[in-house]
Amino acid sequence: MNCYIISFISMLFHCNNTSEITTANNGFSPKNTTLVYATTPKTGNITNALYSNYFEPRQLVFEKKTDTLKPKSLKITASAKKETTTPNTKPTSGTSPAMVVYKIFFDGRIEKHLPKSIKKGYENKYQYVYLDKFGQKYVLGIFTVYKTPTYRGTEGSFVNLINLEEVPKYFKKNQLQYLFKLDSKRSFVNEQTLASFLGAMLEVNYLDIGCNGFSHSDGSSRPSRSHINGNNGDFKYLRTDKEVQCGSGTSLNLIKEPQALDFVRQNKWNNALYKFGWKNFLGWSYTSKGKRRYLDHIPKNTANHFHHLHVQGYEPNFKEIRP
Predict the structure, then answer these.
(1) What does pTM read for this prediction?
(2) What is the pLDDT of residue 290?
(3) Nearest partner of 191 among 167, 159, 218, 219, judged by Cα
(4) What is the pLDDT of residue 284?
(5) Which parts of the chain have pLDDT scores under 70?
(6) Is the peptide bond before 71 cis (omega within 30 degrees of 0)?
(7) Among 101, 157, 166, 158, which residue's Cα sits nearest to residue 127?
């Protein structure tokens, strides 16, 4: 009799364990994740091998296993909703807030749309939207503008600056994407050059853009003299290994490592920057198959530009739309 009792208890114990294992296997798995609308990458270098570990994870927590649910029955926790967006990048649906909206068109056009009135709380906020060749809209973010006296400008003149540190460094939606790293304390662009920068990045869809800075918060550019008021910018040359590093000496040196230059992608990037507004470039030549060649829009070598591309002569295809 004792043997039967012991056997019966063992069977009950086994059933309980089986139930727990089944629940664990069919419940939520940490692998159930979703791509966020926009995010900021971790610090560090980008390589194709490490790309999957480069970004901070964002997870949606589901009450049931996601592949067993119909879309209408999907439930997302409040904390998960908060994780999918940030205040500056929250997608909008329906009518946009009564605020200034920058529209960036795939063909290089930029429009600034002014509302009849501005909603309270949005007086110093601008929204940036990209429109592809099919007319689909992509909300890139809502950013704070800082009204700043024009550096070396006439008395009473102002420029609206935006801090690139407040702009998401990574974006991906459908076939559009970008990733840039800022390697400078000169982190301020102006309201128009931000639109051009975003448009150029979405033209090429690269994930290794390195920006060496525009202006300081007051519109100056010390120690440089040519990067004032957020107009002119510096960029790292693109590498064949698609790495982008930050810090002193990390920019590709075309004198020491000309073979590391990805001149095909670099020319596409140069053309995108030109298309969205910058018409004058300073840079360096490269050597290919024993011949010296110049990148697109760079007619000659400019001293001290063998390790970065300088863009200036800003003349965008810009229009201001009033109600």
Answers:
(1) 0.72
(2) 87
(3) 159
(4) 98
(5) 1-97
(6) no
(7) 101
| Predicted pLDDT at 97 | 65
Q: Identify the pLDDT of residue 238.
A: 98
CB proximity list for 280: less than 8 A, separation 6 or greater: 297, 311, 312, 313
Number of Cβ atoms within 10 Å of the Cβ of 191: 20
C-alpha dist (Å) from residue 159 to 48, 199, 254: 39, 21, 35
Domain range 98-321, CATH architecture: 2-Layer Sandwich (3.30)
Cα-based torsion angle of the residue sequence 42, 45, 49, 52 in order, rounded to the nearest 10 degrees: 10
Distance from C-alpha of 215 to C-alpha of 186, rounded to nearest angstrom: 5
- Residue 72 and residue 279 in contact, taking contact as beta carbons nearer than 8 Å: no
pLDDT computed for residue 287 by the predictor: 86
Per-residue pLDDT at 96: 61
Residue-range domain boundaries for the chain: 98-321
Q: From CA 242, how far away is CA 301, in angstroms rounded?
A: 24
Q: Is 75 helix (H, G, I), strand (E, B) or coil?
A: coil
Helix ranges, 28-181 (H): 78-84
User: Residue 59, Cβ neighbours under 10 Å: how many?
Assistant: 16
How many residues in total does the chain contain?
A: 323
196 φ, ψ (degrees, to nearest 5) = -65, -40
d(CA 274, CA 197): 10
